């Protein structure tokens, strides 16, 4: 894994660059060496490239900021840092001269605080912290508030326990700049120029925007005049945090160019006994904002290691029941470009369905194991975690891991969940972001010397991924627990019933009855002896697939409503909203009766399919 990280993250390799093509070739070559059949598909898309960025305080007391990251003694990879122009992809070109207003995390609630304090952001440049809601949501909210431009900086207070600054330790240093995409992919992931993307209003950002370091933010915050900000608005910079605007105007200038670039997806298949069965897909992405040793290369190295391990078993005679498809996507950082294309093309080709998508974006950000898992897959993961030791404590991971969460919509799980309705999971160590995220300092020195010396944590994650993949692929039936799905729905509908808006939910009694029927059907199916279920797997698999597919509405015009169980959060963008169609309808964003009917039909279909599968399996 160390060799793969040092190869793939040796130099900056943004999507569409020759260095990224070299990284893709190296990854594909590694997979071919395992004996797997590898296909590299090419896709030409128009994506933005930075040209210039500048920021200056105007007037006699002004200054021009150095926006570049610095070369750091001890970290040889940082030599390339000054040449990389910090930018936010898809943010428009612009030149803005305005006062700066600090807006905390840039949420709608934060702008309410400013309003109550008599501070207007109309025509202003907003300075906000990088963490919290999705950066593209920050842009959308700032646009709604009438701001002229947006600056985002990493705030030490949001990054957890204080440790030495990089490169002496893993903490933030004053020059770190966190790049990213401003495409509003929570409205729909993928290429905004494709036919589907062109029909979505507000998919592209309107405001010029720029990522800046804490040293730049500190100077700007020190110039803001006004009363002290609330305590939860304060951070750990040695300047006052105030509600107001700078006396001086600040001039921001950004310029980029949009070019046709070739992106590369790498696919390798380990064939199962039943090619027509639902496949297990295991993926990561390869494109980075700069070197990207943690995000994404550590994730890609984990997937490569799992592929090599299972290919070795296959050479020794092991054969799974269903295909295992390993995929390395390109263009994730720009807005899940490669993964969305891959899912769309697989659906259009009517390829065999997908049983699950297992994803690793980054192997190690911290020491705590994290898993974001769709309902139906959690129990199978827990069985694996009961067999693997935590590298930090030495205890069985199942006994020390935090509670699982739901998969989100800010990475390559998004098109699988939203476009295909595939149960998905993201694995890694470290739930919180890390200080060098999307910066020039996310390099092999950071990963191999500070975050994961000896790659012991990365190897543990590869072990978990390999074992879980093999367990899911060996299952003669689609590897889901519908009792988990029923319990999830029961919990979420119960929570929704406590929402004041649920007074509009006229069919609560029908939901209760439908949930009871689904729980009974799931219990009836799962209580059958495995040998009896497996004996009829070829006949029952289509029924189980239909049961899960019932919770996906491919015809829904809005991406967020296609998966009836999970969708992108209307508040944060990157997070997850449960029962998105029904929840949004209840809060005035749709017809409650129509959304109720959709979910009730899904419950009825899933229950009927499970009962039919149980009837078939019970036959002699």
Secondary-structure map:
Blueprint: H1 2-8, H2 18-33, E1 37-57, E2 63-64, E3 88-89, E4 94-98, E5 100-102, H3 108-116, E6 125-129, H4 135-144, E7 149-153, E8 180-181, H5 195-198, E9 209-211, H6 214-223, E10 224-225, E11 245-246, E12 250-270, E13 279-285, H7 293-315, E14 324-329, H8 332-335, H9 337-348, E15 354-359, E16 369-373, H10 378-385, H11 397-400, H12 413-420, E17 424-429, H13 444-451, H14 456-474, H15 482-497, H16 508-526, H17 530-535, H18 537-549, E18 566-568, E19 576-578, H19 580-586, H20 592-617
Parallel strand pairs: 3-8, 5-6, 6-7, 7-9, 13-14, 13-15, 15-17
Antiparallel strand pairs: 1-2, 1-12, 4-12, 10-11, 12-14, 16-17, 18-19
Helix pairs in contact: 1-7, 7-14, 9-12, 10-14, 15-16, 16-20, 18-20, 19-20
Please give a structural write-up:
The chain has 620 residues and is α/β, with parallel strands linked by helices. 37% of the residues lie in helices and 18% in strands. The protein contains 20 helices and 19 strands. Strands 1, 2, 4, 12, 13, 14, 15, 16 and 17 form a 9-stranded mixed beta sheet that branches. Strands 5-6-7-9 form a 4-stranded parallel beta sheet, with helices on both faces. It has a two-stranded parallel sheet with strand order 3-8. Helix 7 (293-315) links the parallel strand 13 (279-285) and strand 14. Helix 9 packs parallel to helix 12 (413-420). The longest helix is centred in the C-terminal third of the chain and has 26 residues, at 592-617. The radius of gyration is 25 Å and the shape is globular. 54% of the residues are buried. The model has no long low-confidence stretch (mean pLDDT 96).
């Amino acid at each position: 894994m160390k060799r793969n990280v040092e190869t793939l993250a040796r130099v900056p390799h943004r999507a569409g660059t020759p260095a990224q093509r070299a990284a893709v070739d190296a990854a594909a070559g590694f997979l071919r060496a395992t004996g797997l059949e590898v296909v590299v598909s090419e896709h030409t898309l128009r994506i933005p490239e930075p040209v210039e960025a500048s920021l200056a305080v105007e007037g006699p007391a002004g200054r021009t900021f150095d926006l570049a990251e610095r070369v750091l003694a001890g970290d040889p990879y940082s030599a390339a840092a000054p040449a990389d122009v910090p930018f936010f992809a898809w943010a428009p070109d612009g030149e803005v001269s305005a006062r700066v207003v600090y807006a905390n995390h840039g949420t709608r609630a934060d702008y309410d605080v400013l309003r109550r304090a008599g501070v207007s952001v109309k025509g202003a440049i907003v300075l906000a912290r990088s963490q919290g809601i999705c950066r593209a949501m920050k842009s959308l909210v700032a646009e709604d508030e009438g701001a002229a431009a947006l600056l985002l900086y990493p705030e030490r207070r949001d990054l957890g326990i204080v440790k030495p600054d990089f490169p002496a330790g893993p903490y933030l240093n004053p020059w770190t700049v966190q790049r990213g995409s401003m495409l509003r992919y929570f409205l729909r992931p993928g290429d905004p120029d494709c036919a589907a993307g062109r029909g979505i209003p507000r998919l592209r950002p309107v405001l010029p925007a720029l990522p800046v370091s804490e040293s730049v933010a500190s100077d700007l915050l020190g110039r803001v005049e006004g009363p002290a900000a609330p305590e939860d608005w304060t951070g750990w910079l040695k300047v006052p945090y105030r509600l107001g605007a700078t006396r001086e105007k600040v001039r921001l200038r950004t310029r980029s160019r949009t070019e046709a670039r070739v992106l590369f997806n790498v696919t390798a298949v380990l064939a199962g006994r039943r090619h027509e069965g639902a496949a297990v897909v295991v993926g990561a992405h390869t494109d980075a904002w700069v070197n990207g040793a943690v995000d994404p290369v550590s994730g890609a190295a984990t997937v490569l290691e799992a592929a090599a391990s299972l290919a070795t078993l296959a050479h020794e005679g092991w054969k799974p029941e269903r295909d295992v498809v390993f995929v390395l996507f390109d263009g994730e950082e720009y807005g899940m470009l490669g993964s969305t294309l891959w899912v769309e093309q697989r659906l259009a080709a009517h390829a065999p369905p997908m049983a699950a998508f297992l994803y690793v974006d980054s192997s190690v950000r911290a020491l705590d194991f994290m898993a974001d898992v769709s309902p139906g897959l959690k129990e199978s993961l827990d069985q694996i975690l009961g067999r693997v030791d935590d590298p930090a404590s030495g205890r069985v991971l199942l006994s020390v891991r935090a509670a699982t969460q739901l998969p989100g919509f800010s990475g390559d799980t998004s098109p699988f969940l939203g476009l295909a309705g595939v149960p998905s999971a993201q694995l890694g160590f470290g739930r919180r972001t890390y200080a060098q995220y999307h910066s020039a300092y996310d390099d092999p020195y950071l990963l191999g010397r500070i975050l994961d010396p000896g790659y012991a944590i990365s190897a543990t994650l590869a072990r978990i991924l390999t074992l879980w993949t093999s367990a899911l692929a060996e299952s003669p039936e689609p590897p889901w627990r519908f009792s988990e799905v029923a319990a999830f729905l029961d919990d979420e509908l119960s929570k929704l019933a406590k929402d004041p808006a649920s007074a509009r939910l006229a069919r609560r009694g029908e939901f209760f009855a439908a949930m009871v029927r689904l729980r009974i059907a799931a219990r009836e199916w799962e209580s059958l002896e495995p040998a009896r279920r497996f004996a009829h797997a070829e006949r029952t698999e289509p029924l189980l697939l239909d049961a899960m597919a019932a919770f996906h509405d491919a015809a829904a015009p809005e991406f967020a409503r296609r998966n009836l169980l999970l969708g992108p959060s209307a508040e944060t963008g990157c997070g997850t909203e449960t029962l998105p169609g029904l929840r949004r309808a209840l809060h005035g964003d749709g017809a409650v009766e129509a959304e109720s009917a959709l979910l009730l039909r899904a419950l009825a279909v899933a229950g009927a399919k499970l009962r039919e599968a149980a009837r078939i399996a019970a036959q002699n």
